[in-house]
Design a protein that fits this description.
With about 575 residues, the chain is an alpha+beta fold. It contains 14 helices and 27 strands. The strands form 7 sheets. Strands 1, 2, 3, 4, 10 and 11 form a 6-stranded mixed β-sheet that branches. A 6-stranded mixed β-sheet has the order 17-12-13-14-18-21, sandwiched between helices. It is globular, with a radius of gyration of 27 Å. The two termini are about 45 Å apart. Residues about 490-495 have low confidence and may be disordered.
Length: about 575
């Protein structure tokens, strides 16, 4: 049974599989790679998916739906032909269609997939995506962030070139921006940001509303059918402006009519606010990663909406960097998801590839606010953009004399006050009564990218409470397996074989040298252990390469006294 990768998009969806040493796109029943993310119910109750459903958005708007990915994880419902559907229900029809197309193409059952999601999707949205997959008959243990998938696709196509990349992913309904470092066999996302309400659909709306404004029509007072008709025309013109300087747009349904000549300059005027919204996530990822614009090696633009010349020019001018010519906006994410499916299947030619991701939101606990006791403060334990999986600990003290228990409430979000963030769960731990500030509790968060958060709380007497917060659709055996994997994080990385070997080599060289060189070897060992403590694959890989080069110089110097001593190490080289 094959494992496939799926790019579940707002406008179009694709599937890919890793075989014969490459990620291969899977065609649908019509022979196309792109399946429109649209669903419609025919007059006889048949559920239509893809192009047929998209064509009915105008002719049968009461029976059809699209763009529902934007509302994954929300309470929004769609009524089609008198039946109510959640966004994950509609998404499951898309996923089932992709699964059936893959089975027909591969000639074998497909029961498992790796599905891509926007990096900025919250836990509720990720959980809804997994529910949709389960409804489609697919087991999904791994979700991969869309920019990460695009980055790993670029890594495979270009080879192991060390570089810092900005992945700008503008799809039909969402914008993801990620800084990615590629180093050796490690592809590491260092910072993510985005806007879950910004995409190509917003440009369609801007064109549709701008057209109505210039033609003397009130878009908001049109019927749903007329709005959809104009929006579809707007989408067609937007795509035409990718290749033409000017295009004509006209509508006439017997009730309303209008005609206008559009250009990219006109589009910029009508959608200026959308361009401004693109910049904030870019600025945020550079700030979070501590990287300057000058350190950027590559700009990778993916997502169907990044085809737009006005978008490409705007972003490249802001960053003073031309987009990579090798990026494939429509298919990069699907191809990357296919590679991740190959990694999941433990394919031999992908075993050495390491893909790390980051936590898009901060996780923390409520802390007592001495200034406003009714408004608890957010105390971060795992900061946003921490490399995953991760395990971090915080220490907290009692705030009242005689306090005999501590109430721990776990939150997700970036706001200062807990009430503005999302409550994930809570637990209570007893502590020995004592004057305030004399009893402490240690709170450890251990978290993976698929939504499993283990919270361990211990007091000074050794008493402990434990809470596991997981995707409610996660099977118990899957949760237990992940907990076993996460427990490895609590072992220091120096226990890993390569790291142990490097430390042993350094200790041998420390014993073999004297004077200033011995002192420098000792300093390098201390420095290396500090990097091991970070438990971050990219950082450890860089440090391992650097210290290995240094040890090579030391051994060469010991073996040949005519050689100059190793050059002093410069910390900023990392």
């Amino acid at each position: 049974m094959a494992i496939i990768g799926i790019d579940l998009g707002t406008t179009n969806s694709l599937a890919a599989v890793w075989r014969n040493g490459k990620s291969e796109l899977i065609p649908n029943a019509a022979g196309d790679f792109l399946t429109p993310s649209a669903v419609s119910i025919d007059s006889d109750g048949t559920i239509l998916v893809g192009r047929a459903a998209r064509d009915r958005l105008v002719s049968a708007p009461d029976c059809s739906a699209a763009r529902f990915k934007r509302f994954m994880g929300s309470a929004k419902t769609y009524t089609l032909a008198g039946r109510a559907f959640r966004p994950e229900d509609l998404s499951s029809f898309i996923l089932r269609s992709l699964r059936e197309d893959a089975e027909a193409y591969l000639g074998e059952p497909v029961t498992e997939a790796v599905v891509s999601v926007p990096a900025y999707f919250a836990e509720a949205q990720r959980a809804a995506t997994k529910r949709a997959a389960a409804l489609a008959g697919l087991k999904v243990e791994r979700l991969v962030n869309e920019p990460s998938a695009a980055a790993v696709a670029g890594h495979i196509s270009e080879g192991e070139q060390d570089k810092v990349c900005l992945v700008f992913d503008l799809g039909g309904g969402t914008l993801d921006v990620s800084l990615v470092e590629r180093f050796g066999n490690v592809v590491s996302v260092t910072a993510v940001s985005g806007d879950n309400r910004l995409g190509g659909e917003d440009f369609d709306q801007a064109i549709a509303r701008g057209f109505c404004e210039d033609c003397g029509l009130d878009f908001d007072r049109l019927s749903p059918r007329q709005q959809e008709m104009i929006t579809r025309q707007a989408e067609t013109c937007k795509m035409a402006l990718t290749h033409q300087e000017i295009v004509g747009m006209s509508v006439d349904d017997g009730e309303i009519s209008g005609a206008l000549t559009l250009s990219n300059e006109w589009l910029i005027r009508k959608s200026g606010a959308l361009f401004q919204r693109m910049i904030a996530p870019i600025q945020r990822v550079f700030l979070d990663a501590g990287i300057s614009y000058q350190e950027l090696d590559d700009l990778v633009m993916v997502g169907g909406s990044s085809h737009m010349p006005v978008v490409r020019r705007y972003i490249s001018r802001f960053l003073h960097k031309e987009p990579s010519r090798d990026s494939r906006p429509d298919t990069a994410i699907a191809l990357g998801a296919g590679i991740c499916a190959g990694i999941k299947a433990r394919t031999g030619d992908l075993k050495e590839l390491v893909l790390t991701d980051v936590c898009p939101f901060t996780l923390g606990v409520a802390r007592y606010n001495a200034s406003e006791s009714a408004r608890d403060l957010m105390s971060p334990i795992i900061e946003r953009n921490s490399v995953l999986p991760t395990s971090k600990m915080g220490v907290y003290y009692t705030v009242r004399d005689g306090q005999d228990k501590v109430d721990i409430r776990i939150y997700q979000g970036e706001h200062r006050y807990c009430a503005d963030n999302t409550l994930l769960g809570q637990l209570v731990l007893k502590v020995p009564p004592a004057p305030r500030g004399q009893q402490s509790v240690r709170i450890r968060f251990t978290y993976d990218i698929n939504g499993l958060l283990e919270v361990e709380v211990a007091n000074e007497a050794g008493q402990m409470e434990r809470l596991v917060l997981q995707n409610k659709d996660m099977a118990p055996e899957e949760a237990q397996r992940r907990l076993q994997e996460l427990s490895k994080l609590k072992l220091h990385p120096r226990e890993q074989e390569e790291c142990r070997a490097m430390l042993a080599r350094g200790e041998r060289l420390f014993a073999a040298t004297v004077g200033g060189l011995r002192e420098e070897v000792g300093q390098m060992l201390d420095w290396y252990q500090q990097h091991l403590s970070s438990q971050e694959a990219l950082r450890i890989a860089k440090a391992t390469k650097k210290i290995d080069q240094f040890f090579d110089q030391v051994e060469a110097y010991i073996g040949d006294a005519a050689l100059p001593p190793p050059e002093p190490f410069e910390e900023d080289e990392l």
